[in-house]
Amino acid sequence: MRIEEIMTTDVETCMPESTLQEVASIMREINVGAIPICEKGRLIGIVTDRDIVIRGLAEKLPSDTAIAEILSEEVITGTTDLSAEQAAELMTTHKIRRLPIVENDRMIGIISWCDLAITKDSITHQEEDAIIKSSKLEEPES
Questions:
Q1: pLDDT band for position 136 (cuts 50, 70, 90)
Q2: Secondary structure of residue 57 in the 3-state scheme
Q3: Which of 9, 25, 72, 112 has the fewest C-beta atoms under 10 angstroms from its C-beta?
Q4: For the chain, first and last CA: distance in Å?
């Protein structure tokens, strides 16, 4: 199964000048743990709820601090020609839970472990094995 078939395409993003408070509020409102940060449609980073806690609150940054101060700039991305198995392997290798999908330097979607698990009934045995193997990873380090 191709990633294009299961990725989320209606992805909420924020701009680098968005504040910690704004991003945290959006995460709560739409019930997600990560928000891609884009500038003029181009993915420049990603921030997770854990980033906000560890790099923001624990460092006593004010809630009006720009999210650009704490985002992860080195983002592992995928493309629409990936299979679910390839995406799972990429996520496993890099110990990530979400994989932004880009095309021509523009973010067009995102895939998460939940997306892969939900499609379990419609994936191949090989893809399922990759997902199961990947889900047994240790917690990622930040």
A1: low
A2: helix
A3: 9
A4: 30
Strands (DSSP E) found in the chain: 34-39, 42-48, 98-103, 106-112
Rounded alpha-carbon distances, angstroms, from residue 137 to 16, 50, 114, 117, 125: 31, 18, 15, 15, 19
Phi, psi of 136 (to 5 degrees): -95, 15
Please count the other Cβ atoms lying within 10 Å of the Cβ belonging to residue 102.
Answer: 19
Token reading at 96: 């990530």
How would you class 98 by CB atoms within 10 Å of its CB: exposed for 0-12, middle for 13-18, buried for 19 or more? buried
Which two three-digit tokens encode residue 136? 């047994």
57: CB partners within 8 A, 6+ apart: none
Using alpha carbons, select from 51, 59, 47, 62 the residue that is nearest to residue 15. Answer: 47
Could you report the per-residue pLDDT of 113-128, keeping only the tens digit for each? 888 876 555 455 555 5
Does the pLDDT of residue 5 top 70, yes or no?
Answer: yes
pLDDT tens for 24-82 read: 999 999 999 999 999 998 999 999 999 999 999 999 999 999 999 999 999 999 999 99
